[in-house]
Design brief:
With about 110 residues, the protein is of the alpha+beta class. Helices cover about 35% and strands about 25% of the residues. It has a single domain, classed as Alpha-Beta Plaits. The chain is globular.
């Protein structure tokens, strides 16, 4: 069964543009490896500059497989260079019932 996820990336200072590049490559890379569905991802920007990436894994097993795949590990290492993984609840927008974000178009 498919598995939707919301990932939050807080850019490291001065790395906003590089983070966008990595996010742009993320889901297509997962798709090539058979780990993400064809559903288009949605990328949003929070007031603090964090990016939210909403996408769909093909299954819970695909998530586990990604954690051991060398190509995915390289991609995730690039994320770590340019951002911090952040819990959704840490965003100011998450503290209200109807959260508003800016849509990021690629």
């Amino acid at each position: 069964m498919a598995n939707m996820v919301i990932a939050v990336y807080r850019p490291r200072e001065g790395h906003e543009a590089r983070l966008l590049e990595v996010v742009r490559e993320h889901v297509p890379a997962l798709r090539r490896l058979g780990l993400a569905t064809a559903r288009p991802p949605v990328v949003l920007r929070a007031k603090d500059g964090s990016l939210l990436e909403i996408f769909e894994w093909v299954s819970a097993e695909a998530v586990e497989k990604a954690h051991h795949h060398p190509e995915v590990q390289k991609l995730w290492a690039r994320f770590e260079e340019v951002c911090e993984w952040t819990p959704l609840g840490a965003l100011e927008e998450a503290k209200v019932p109807f959260s508003h974000f800016d849509l990021v178009e690629f």
